[in-house]
């Protein structure tokens, strides 16, 4: 058996989801006539405290639709240098929307550098500079190891942006993980931002789909952009049915994933070849590097060799580049799987002779 720690996107739908998908009431969503999608969108808006919501096939499409709805051609979008929107979405804001990305540093906790943020916001007084239309946040933060932004930090960034007439979008692919970790309702985390995207297909375990929320006027724009991006899926209530189960049954259990990730982190910390700070692990994701007996950090190629060895011993993990290894816990994994994964990793380290 392979223990798959590459991502929480590998989750399988629950039996309740499969039953709900089988029995889903369907209609044509392009005409806004799919009752299951409509119920999902209404529930998502209610949970996040926003006026309206839109079901989209993927988190990337949700983020792209948000950027294209907030920013016009020639208007800039401020992103963190470690953000998913900047690194992993094909440069969509620039490619499709004609909106240049202005990159500011991301701190290790996932927070944007506030001084650089303030300096980056531009109005239309200087014809040489693209005026700023949008600031993008990420919560939890992928490349920072699943770190969370509390309401105070979100509000600080939103206040800076809103004071200059700039909108704020949150890439909240794993916002429910942040909510559980902080003990704060999602609507509080979403309160200060103008739009939020969250995924149903990660820790919440639905097979497909994400949600974009915001004002009614914003979602009206986003609905048009979704069509532009090819996201009209007709009788997609068969997918939305799993999303309803995800929101109704799968949120609180995310705490189990966090506990398992802590178990994994403390186990890894016992191996002298692994550099990790378990205290920084707060959700379902961790990052670590490897080093040899001379305390030299392994290169990306050497980390790849370690991942191949770990796979031989039944453990799948991923790399974030620069020798950084990522592991993510999720639905379908229990405490015994974490123990087995630690054993497989130990064998891989021995074979690497580190």
From TrEMBL:
Record-linked CDD domains: TA_like (cd06502)
Chain positions found as N6-(pyridoxal phosphate)lysine: 202
Keyword terms, alphabetized: Lyase, Pyridoxal phosphate
Cofactor entry: pyridoxal 5'-phosphate
Gene3D superfamilies, alphabetized: Aspartate Aminotransferase, domain 1, Type I PLP-dependent aspartate aminotransferase-like (Major domain)
InterPro entries xrefs: ArAA_b-elim_lyase/Thr_aldolase (IPR001597), Low_specificity_L-TA-like (IPR023603), PyrdxlP-dep_Trfase (IPR015424), PyrdxlP-dep_Trfase_major (IPR015421), PyrdxlP-dep_Trfase_small (IPR015422)
GO molecular function, one term: L-allo-threonine aldolase activity
Similarity comment text for this entry: Belongs to the threonine aldolase family.
Protein name: Threonine aldolase
Top-level taxonomy: Bacteria, Bacillati, Chloroflexota, Ktedonobacteria, Ktedonobacterales
């Amino acid at each position: 058996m392979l223990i798959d720690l590459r991502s929480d996107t590998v989750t399988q739908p629950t039996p309740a989801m499969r039953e709900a998908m089988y029995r889903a009431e369907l209609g044509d969503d392009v005409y806004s006539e799919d009752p299951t999608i409509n119920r999902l969108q209404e529930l998502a808006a209610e949970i996040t405290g926003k006026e309206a919501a839109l079901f989209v096939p993927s988190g990337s499409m949700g983020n792209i639709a948000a950027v294209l709805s907030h920013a016009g051609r020639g208007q800039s979008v401020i992103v963190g240098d470690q953000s998913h929107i900047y690194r992993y979405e094909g440069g969509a804001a620039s490619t499709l929307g004609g909106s240049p990305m202005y990159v500011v540093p991301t701190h290790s906790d996932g927070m944007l550098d506030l001084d650089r943020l303030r300096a980056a916001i531009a109005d239309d007084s200087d014809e040489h500079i693209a005026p700023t239309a949008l600031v993008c946040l990420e919560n939890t933060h992928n490349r920072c190891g699943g770190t969370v932004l509390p309401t105070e930090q979100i509000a600080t960034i939103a206040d800076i942006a809103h004071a200059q007439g700039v909108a704020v979008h949150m890439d909240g692919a794993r916002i429910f993980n942040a909510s559980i970790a902080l003990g704060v309702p999602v609507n509080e985390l979403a309160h200060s931002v103008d739009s939020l995207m969250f995924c149903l297909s990660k820790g919440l375990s639905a097979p497909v789909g994400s949600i974009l929320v915001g004002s009614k006027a914003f979602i009206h724009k986003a609905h048009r952009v979704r069509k532009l991006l090819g996201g009209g899926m007709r009788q997609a209530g068969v997918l939305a049915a799993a999303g309803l189960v995800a929101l109704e049954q799968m949120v609180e259990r995310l705490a189990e994933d966090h506990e398992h990730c802590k178990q994994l982190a403390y186990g890894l910390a016992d191996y002298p070849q692994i550099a990790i700070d378990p205290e920084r692990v707060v959700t379902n994701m961790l990052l670590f590097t490897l080093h040899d007996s001379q305390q030299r950090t392994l290169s990306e190629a050497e980390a790849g060799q370690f991942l191949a060895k770990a796979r031989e011993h039944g453990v799948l993990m991923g790399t974030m580049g620069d020798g950084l290894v990522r592991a993510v816990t999720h639905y379908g994994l229990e405490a015994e799987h974490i123990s087995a994964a630690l054993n497989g990793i130990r064998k891989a380290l021995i074979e690497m002779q580190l």
